[in-house]
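Friendly challenge for the regulars: who can give me the structure tokens for this chain first? No prize, just bragging rights.
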Amino acid sequence: MPMMIGASSLFVILSLHTIFGCSSTTSNQVKQKESDVTDSSKNDSVDTKEIPDVDTVIGWKNRGFGSPEPIWITKALSGDFQSIRDKHPEFANSTLILVHAAGFNLDYLENYTASYDVAAKVPAATDITSVDYGWIQIRPAASKNAVDYYEHIHVYACQQPNQAPSVILLQAE
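First reply, four minutes later:
Bragging rights claimed.
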């Protein structure tokens, strides 16, 4: 009479075969990994040639969705406002107010700049409108102990009676 094996028995047999049948390969792989770790731990020094000498942009809004790096932010932080003007030609006759904040907590920076009291800082401004915002994540230059941080800019457009359109960069306190 043929021997009948139930589904649960077959599962147990296959599981045991998998565990014990592959154990020598697995232990050899583990030994190899351990030797790799041991060999690499002999050199504890950090090669400073790998750390760039300049701040590096390593992240930005919607990067994970394929969005290009927002060059207008780095340019605005260095005083070049033409790229933000080019990005928003519909506000060519308006004053643009850029509210800038830097720090380690991106959610806080976004909320802070979005609720910033622009009217209190630029009293002559009327018809203040939120236009755009963006952020970049920075890795500081040549320091293995430095912590990455964020630069966040919120863009507002407004009218300033009797003044030519301009760009105002406000550092959020």
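Residues 135 and 152 are 4 Å apart (CA to CA). Residues 23-40 form the longest helix (18 residues). Your move, everyone else.
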